[in-house]
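User: Can you predict the 3D structure of RNA polymerase Rpb4/RPC9 core domain-containing protein? Sequence below.
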Amino acid sequence: MSNKMSRPKPPPPGTEEASANLNLGEFQNVDTLTLSEAALVLNALVAKRRNDRKNVNETEMLNQTLNYLDHFARFTQKENVEAVERLLSSHKDLAKFERAQLGSLCCENADEAKTLIPSLQDKIKDEDLQDLLDEISKLQNR
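Assistant: Sure. Here are the predicted structure tokens for RNA polymerase Rpb4/RPC9 core domain-containing protein:
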């Protein structure tokens, strides 16, 4: 006998996938950051802690993460990071995950974007996606 008041059992961890259908489990509607946004946040936090002379607790993992973000962040100027975020946020038809992926991968064309982010396939026309990618590219650090 089923209890109508019970919550559905969450899916087992490890079943998440970002394929043609996004199945992100508990992360489905969580706010996401591009690599550039994550770099800004972490670098600002570390700088503030150093400035306040607080224990920064710079672990090897933190240093590796900062190195990774510094290497792969496509936008380093705060104004450009914010402009890309505003541009991506205006596309409410796209999932937060998809928007973050577009802002991190900086694909050259719609075909590449839809190959790397298959869930975009039926969500946005190639022309509209190309326009978005072109706008993102204008903000990219050269």
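The CA atoms of residues 7 and 51 lie 47 Å apart. Residues 30-139 form a domain with the Growth Hormone; Chain: A; fold (CATH 1.20.1250.40).
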